[in-house]
Amino acid sequence: xxxxxxxxxxxxxxxxxxxxxxxxxxxxxxxxxxxxxxxxxxxxxxxxxxxxxxxxxxxxxxxxxxxxxxxxxxxxxxxxxxxxxxxxxxxxxxxxxxxxxxxxxxxxxxxxxxxxxxxxxxxxxxxxxxxxxxxxxxxxxxxxxxxxxxxxxxxxxxxxxxxxxxxxxxxxxxxxxxxxxxxxxxxxxxxxxxxxxxxxxxxxxxxxxxxxxxxxxxxxxxxxxxxxxxxxxxxxxxxxxxxxxxxxxxxxxxxxxxxxxxxxxxxxxxxxxxxxxxxxxxxxx
Length: 285
What we know:
The chain is α/β, with parallel strands linked by helices. The chain is about 40% helix and about 20% strand. The protein has eleven helices and twelve strands. It starts with a strand and ends with a helix.
């Protein structure tokens, strides 16, 4: 089976491409050049060769959200998604379209799942809503899967590596109280979700890619330091984060309490469900 993937050079995409290839799939990357004006024919030809399209395109949210960069965040998600959808609608071979989104869609108030989730207010929920709306324009005969990612954690990069560096110095830096929800998933589990969706044609729609157990940020970091003799907890008020990071500070000062109701319903088995599991993975790495 052939898969084409946008965002294949990013942190998640590069790991996923290697993983899918090791699982026996043929994976072709869709570079940015395929989404430029006048490249529609080349994109059509590439899509026509594949049964599965995985869409991970999108600029990092981990930069100051200036007016110009907000436009980048929108265009880097909506344009590739729209062009891929249009190409799939013209194709005769593609059967499955998997697109990334984020749990940032949800409100930070209450516990959210796919059935009863409440959209939040602000830039990030609006961005997620606009991103997902492009996927619903696929022709009905294509199976549509939207994966709302929690914070993706891996021993070899991302925020977990940063936290580990601080914790090794016995420092726990908390945005505000640290009691905000932390919706996360291990990188290996996320990649396993992709295989799960490819191999089970009965599942479609929106899935929350987060671990089943809900935990606060301070609870998670405390679990990571349970064997340390002492840890200095430093609580930094929200206004300081907003002063230095602008509106992007909500990524740290707010969080979501999210359940993976549909993955549980589908029978997906998580391998990494606790901070200890991540720590063990870090040691093995």
